[in-house]
Design goal:
Blueprint: H1 12-15, E1 31-35, E2 40-43, H2 45-51, H3 53-60, E3 71-74, H4 79-91, H5 96-112, H6 116-128, H7 135-144, H8 148-160, H9 162-166, H10 169-177, H11 179-225, E4 230-232, H12 245-260, H13 262-265, H14 271-286, H15 298-307, H16 315-333, H17 337-345, E5 357-359
Helix pairs in contact: 2-3, 4-5, 5-6, 6-8, 7-8, 8-11, 11-12, 11-14, 11-16, 12-14, 14-15
Bound molecules: zinc ion (3 copies).
């Protein structure tokens, strides 16, 4: 066989440029790789065997099972793809140009000859270069070559560009020849839609728990040091709005209402009072201060919960408490350390046990 023109030579001299010690003193190549185009690539059996266990098996096969002891056939892919495959076996490197030109062939070769590093590189490269026209072909190849990451990338692309993909030749071919895969793609799309909805719902719920957790913080801070117009009788509220004033203001409005609501005074309950009542109960459920807590009704709620400890507290409420506590933990973990220390500081030591809210109207009158 003639030696074809190669883009570069696989030869001990070119490999010897590699600085790694294992390539410094290579002996003469002892076998050849033969490609579909008739190209013979001189190679070292030891190197091939050290990188690929499949090639090792082929090289070590008894002679009668091989056409020639000195030749390994790598057929069915372009010669240059085989050349860059061999280059990778020697150097663990593959240029972007070769990945671009022969990525799919190299993926197949790395799968057949068990070269995981190359397979990984090809998978990533192909996933990066996916196009609407190529995605179905690459998906089929990825499944044949057992490349789950690449399959997933293809599935995601098909599902986000479904209308455009449907117009491609690849899709038409798939519909005719691989209805099973078509079904799997449709199932994937349905599942990912469900997943998206679930995530959306969870994010929404998490936002609500975080808001409740913020409301709990604001409630404690209003009852302890006061904020703008509302605070305990013995403390002058800070005039400057706090960092969470949008939530704090809402809690303040509820407190003001709760203190003056005519319905509540007469034993009824409006929705605002009910909400305030729930906030106070929620506070008591998560409050870990013993007698020092300054939030109204905290002790009473705790006593009531103590009496009902035999499991009467409904499970929905317990779940709500748990979620609010975990939302609080998550939000406190995301605070910078300095702010966290300051936040911890404000929860310590307070001796006043009796508490009545005062709501200061903007004109200064106390409600
Ligand atoms: Zn505030
Ligand atoms: Zn009311
Ligand atoms: Zn409390």
């Amino acid at each position: 066989m003639e030696a074809l023109l190669l883009p570069y030579q696989i030869h001990p001299h070119s490999v010897a440029k590699d600085r790694r010690p294992e390539f410094q003193e290579l002996p003469e190549p002892d076998i050849h790789i033969l490609t579909s185009g008739g190209l013979r690539i001189p190679v070292h059996s030891t190197i091939l065997a050290s990188v690929s266990s499949v090639l090792e098996n082929i090289i070590n096969q008894p002679e009668k099972h091989r056409s020639s002891k000195k030749v390994v056939h790598i057929l069915g892919v372009p010669c240059e793809a085989v050349v860059s495959f061999v280059q990778f076996l020697y150097t663990s490197r593959c240029t972007e140009e070769y990945l671009r030109k022969y990525g799919i062939h190299l993926l197949a070769l790395s799968h057949v000859y068990l070269v995981p590093h190359l397979k990984n590189r090809c998978s990533k490269h192909l996933a990066r270069k996916l196009t609407i026209d190529s995605v179905i072909d690459v998906l089929q190849l990825a499944r044949m070559c057992d490349a789950p990451d690449l399959s997933l990338s293809c599935m995601k692309m098909v599902s986000s560009h479904y209308k455009a993909v449907q117009k491609t030749e690849g899709w038409k071919f798939l519909q005719e020849h691989d209805p099973w895969l078509e079904l799997q793609i449709l199932q994937f799309m349905e599942e990912s839609e469900l997943r998206k909805n679930r995530c959306r719902r969870q994010r929404k719920e998490q936002r609500v728990y975080l808001q409740l957790s913020d409301a709990m913080e604001c409630l404690e801070h209003i009852c302890k040091e006061g904020c703008t117009n509302v605070g305990p009788r013995d403390v002058e509220p800070t005039k400057k709005p706090c960092a969470k004033f949008s939530t704090c203001h809402g809690v303040q409005l509820l407190i003001k209402h709760f203190a003056t609501c005519a319905k509540r005074v007469h034993g009824g309950a409006c929705w605002r009072c009910k909400r305030m009542w729930q906030l106070l109960r929620l506070h008591a459920s998560i409050c870990d201060q013993s007698d020092a807590c300054r939030v109204p009704l905290c002790r009473q709620f705790k006593l009531k919960m103590e009496q009902e400890k035999d499991g009467k507290e409904d499970s929905k409420w317990k779940m709500l408490v748990k979620k609010v506590v975990s939302a609080k933990t998550i939000s406190s973990l995301s605070l910078p350390r300095r702010k966290r220390a300051a936040a911890e500081d404000t929860t310590s030591g307070d001796r006043i046990r009796s508490f009545r809210l005062q709501c200061v109207e903007p004109n200064g009158s106390v409600l």
